[in-house]
Structures are given as C-alpha cells and as structure tokens.
Amino acid sequence: MTVMQPSMKSRENSENKLYEQALRLATRKKPDLAQAKGLLETAHVAGDRRATYALATWLLTGNTVCSKDVRAAVRLLKLAAEADIAPAHFDLAVSHETGQGTRKNEKAAYRHFVAAALNGDDAALAEVGRCLYHGIGVGRDRKLAEVWFRRADMMGISIR
Asked: Could you tell me if 70 and 95 are in contact, meaning their C-beta atoms sit under 8 angstroms apart?
C-alpha cells in the first residue's frame, strides 16, 4: 500500500477542485467556458488527466473559446490515455483508425479500443468485436468477435 504524503493529498484535492469547478462552470445554465477553460488548463498542467481529456474533447470539435485543432487534441488524448481515461482511449482509437490528427494505424486503434473496453467504456466492447470480426488491426477472429458482441449487447450497446 502506498502512503501519500500530506502535500500530495492536498495537491490532488486542489486538482480535483479545479476540475470539478470547471465542470460546474461549463455545464451551468449560462456556461462560462472561458473561465472553465482556464481552470481546466491549470488542472491539466498540475497533472489532472481528466482535465487533459476535457481539453482534448474541446479541441476535437472546437467551441467558442477553443478553436478546433485535431492534432493538438490527439497529443492531449495520448496523455489522458496514459492515465487510462477510458474515453481518451476510445477517442484515440477513432483517431488512429481514421487518420484524423495522427497517422492511420489500425493496430494502435485496436489496442486503444481494447484499453477503452477494459477501463469501462461499454461502446468500446462493440468496437473490439467489430475489429475482430473484420480483421481491423488484428487477425480476423469471428468467434472471439461474437464474445465481445454478446458482452456489448449485455451492456445495452446496439451492435447491428
């Protein structure tokens, strides 16, 4: 068991507060995206990879305070994926499969779909099955694909 030093705990609490405050600002009735972005950037620099992922999603699509920049988004997705943020793995898989913001790499796409699924992203279950069924980034294995499809179906994910 790792015992955290008091300064580490207070830093983590501070990061959590910044991220949570940014979420509140971004999702209230009249969002303050500029202030939320500032808090997310501060939390990202402090190491909160949830904030890193949030900034990446804004860069993927762009919004009123953040211009669309898919390459920058992919760089942030990679950092968030290193912390096993499931949706970061999923979005990174899509980027690798489509070649948006990074070079196309179906093997990397498959690996990230698996990582997303193993970290709790239910939609990734169907994507792993699809990759296995069609041989995308991995050898075709339709029997194993069916296992993943059944699991996706159990989680309420439509696969067909």
From this structure: yes
